[in-house]
Design brief:
- It is built from eight helices and four strands; from the N terminus they run H-H-H-H-H-E-H-E-H-E-E-H.
- With about 210 residues, the protein is α/β, with parallel strands linked by helices.
- The chain has a domain at about 75-205: P-loop containing nucleotide triphosphate hydrolases (Rossmann fold, 3-Layer(aba) Sandwich), CATH 3.40.50.300.
- It has a four-stranded parallel beta sheet with strand order 2-3-1-4, with helices on both faces.
- Helix 7 (about 135-145) links the parallel strand 2 and strand 3.
- The longest helix has 14 residues, at about 75-85.
Length: about 210
């Protein structure tokens, strides 16, 4: 058992100190997303993902249909990508600024990339999948950190914490997040201050 933390540095204090910047949340709604999930509909991978978020899958109680139906439904993912392109922060070249899509599964990440290619073929090279069973995943992470392209990554777990890309301006959480700690860690990927950024040319004009 862990006791009370010796030192706690809150998000609000980080804002006051100028270490982090405020975020702006935009919810995306669809009928499928609003249906929810039933415990009996979770497969092994869904249950493992809940455990990683310190949630007991047997106590998970959200009404609705199958997990894969929610996150692999093409209309839902098209809605998400369309809303993203309409609302995302962009750099001066009108491309989306650095972005992480936190996907619900490896299959979901690959599916989002497929739909992205269909919807935005002129930007297909700007989006990449980063998942643990890809041999070049670390190379793609390094490119995402150090180069202008790719601008957008579809990932599962690998970029939730510990990845330092201060230029990230857009976070799209396309998965259920039940851990308070994990949520704030994920949010931290996109709330770094301007001083931390090495490539201001990748940022929206409003943030320079």
């Amino acid at each position: 058992m862990f006791g009370k933390a010796t030192v706690e540095y809150s998000y609000d204090q980080a804002l006051t100190d100028g270490v982090l910047v405020p975020y702006h949340a935009i919810p995306i709604y669809s009928n499928v997303l609003n249906e929810g999930i039933k415990p009996n509909d979770l497969n092994k991978y869904d249950r493992d993902d809940l455990r990683r978020q310190d949630v007991d899958p047997d106590e998970f109680d959200v009404t609705g249909s199958q997990f894969d139906k929610i996150f692999l439904n093409k209309d839902t993912n098209e809605t998400i990508l369309k809303e993203f392109m309409e609302r995302c922060y962009r750099s001066d070249d009108n491309k989306p600024a650095k972005t992480i899509f936190f996907c619900s599964s490896k299959r979901h990440a690959k599916r989002l990339k497929e739909i992205w290619n269909e919807m935005f073929p002129d930007l297909s090279g700007e989006a990449q999948v980063i998942i643990s069973d890809m041999s070049h995943s670390q190379h793609t992470i390094d490119r995402f950190k150090k180069q202008s392209s790719p601008r957008i990554v579809f990932s599962v777990s690998m970029l939730d914490t510990g990845v330092d890309v201060p230029e990230i301006c857009n976070l799209v959480m396309v998965k259920p997040i039940f851990s308070h700690i994990q949520f704030w860690q994920m949010l931290g990927r996109g709330t770094r201050n301007l001083k931390s950024c090495k490539h201001p040319e990748w940022l929206p004009e409003r943030k320079k």
